[in-house]
Design brief:
Blueprint: H1 2-9, H2 12-27, H3 31-44, H4 51-64, H5 68-81, H6 85-101, H7 105-118, H8 123-140, H9 143-158, H10 166-189, H11 196-217, H12 223-245, H13 255-288, H14 294-306, H15 308-311, H16 372-382
Helix pairs in contact: 2-3, 3-4, 4-5, 5-6, 6-7, 7-8, 8-9, 9-10, 10-11, 10-12, 11-12, 12-13, 12-14, 13-14
């Protein structure tokens, strides 16, 4: 009798009845009992035709019942068993999200790794997954893996073609900003020492790399990142100014020659201070265009330091400034043809600050707002800047 009952219980008809009972409990929103019944059904009938559906319903029951970790595990199982790729893709995303809700970031990371390997498209969803992976690696202190994901985001956005969206550009811009930060640090930390020509060449090489990186960030047209890039470019010019002024002096100069040498340094450093101010003022103009964030605030603070007579006020009003729609930036280029600084002849050991041999760009119409490229070209033509 017992064997007969057991056989009947395992029959397809009986299995369907068990499954239907679990579904009925779901309709009543009795998540706990529904999960128990569905789990028992799947355990008793692992090969039943409704077993995959039971897994989906069980995942739903756990999710609705607030059991995120159990739900995540079931969604992983749904993804593994799925015959439909779209179902598998959505199940993996659901599993990763639920693991995050359960504060199990390691399990979430593993699921995201599966996801980006299996589903590089849609691009936006894949980059979102990589961004979350990057944040997890950052929290773990794994800088190499963190930066690797940021590089992947930048590269995959650039090659996204028709799938490129405002969101993918935003993620790529933020990733690029993080990756550009070390370039600024490497440039800023390098001092100008003797032999001057050697240290100057090294600093100019780092300057060009940093300027190009931040200039490229403005192409994303993400306001927050544009403001950050503008701030950094201003600080690059300011650092170069201070590096010239504070550079190591050559030995063996008498007092008059040393004084002329230092005058030459001050003369060559001055235009870079002006460029720093102009770029910080570009961020001030961004405020008039509706961009007010930490980077524009930092530029305002720097303007108060650099031009206190103009900006050291209780409030800095930007309401009268026109909104600027397009910002053009240009990084200086260091070449083997760089020539010397206009030092006083009495100070032959004065440092050589290279000229910029870059061809001039096409100038915009006279009624267009002056951008940094115009300002820079005008300064070069006037002989005020020898970058």
């Amino acid at each position: 009798m017992v064997d007969a009952v057991g056989a009947a219980r395992k029959s397809a008809v009986w299995g369907a009845t068990e499954y239907d009972g679990g579904v009925a409990l779901l309709k009543l929103e009795d998540w706990t009992k529904a999960a128990v019944v569905l789990d028992e059904f799947r355990g008793a009938f692992p090969n039943h035709a409704l077993a995959p559906e039971a897994t989906k319903q069980l995942a739903f029951a756990y999710r609705q019942g607030g059991k995120a970790a159990l739900a995540a595990s079931e969604y992983e199982r749904v993804a593994t068993d799925a015959q439909d790729p779209e179902l598998g893709r959505e199940a993996l995303l659901a599993a990763a999200d639920l693991y995050e809700q359960a504060a199990d970031r390691e399990s979430a990371l593993k699921v995201y790794e599966k996801y980006v390997a299996a589903f590089p498209q849609p691009v936006e969803a894949a980059l979102e997954a990589r961004w979350k992976m990057a944040e997890t690696y950052k929290a773990k202190g794994d800088q190499v893996s963190y930066e690797k994901q940021l590089h992947e985001i930048v590269a995959r956005d650039a090659s996204a073609g028709a799938e490129r969206t405002n969101r993918t550009k935003y993620l790529a811009a933020q990733s690029g900003l993080v990756l550009s930060g070390p370039l600024y640090s490497q440039f800023a930390e390098l001092k100008l020492t003797q032999p001057f020509d050697k240290s100057l060449a090294a600093k100019r090489k780092r300057m060009d790399a940093a300027m190009q990186a931040f200039e490229d960030l403005t192409d994303y047209e993400v306001a927050e990142v544009t403001a950050a890039a503008t701030y950094y470019m201003a600080e690059i010019y300011w650092n170069f100014n201070r590096s010239l002024v504070e550079s190591q002096r050559p030995t063996g100069l008498d007092a008059p020659t040393l004084a002329e040498y230092e005058d030459a340094l001050e003369e060559q450093a001055f235009p870079f201070e002006g460029k720093a101010i102009e770029f910080h003022e570009k961020n001030r103009e961004l405020i008039a265009a509706g961009v007010y964030n930490d980077w524009t605030k930092k530029s305002l603070a720097r303007l108060v330091e650099l031009v206190p007579g103009r900006y050291a006020k209780r409030e800095v009003s930007s309401g009268f400034l026109p909104a600027i729609d397009v910002y053009a930036y240009r990084a200086p280029s260091a070449t083997a043809e760089d020539t010397g600084v206009r030092a006083a002849q009495a100070a032959p050991a004065a440092p050589a600050v290279p000229e910029n041999p870059s061809a001039p760009q096409e100038k915009p119409s006279n009624d267009a707002p002056k951008d940094p490229t115009q300002i820079r070209e005008a300064a070069v033509e006037a002989g005020d800047v020898v970058l």
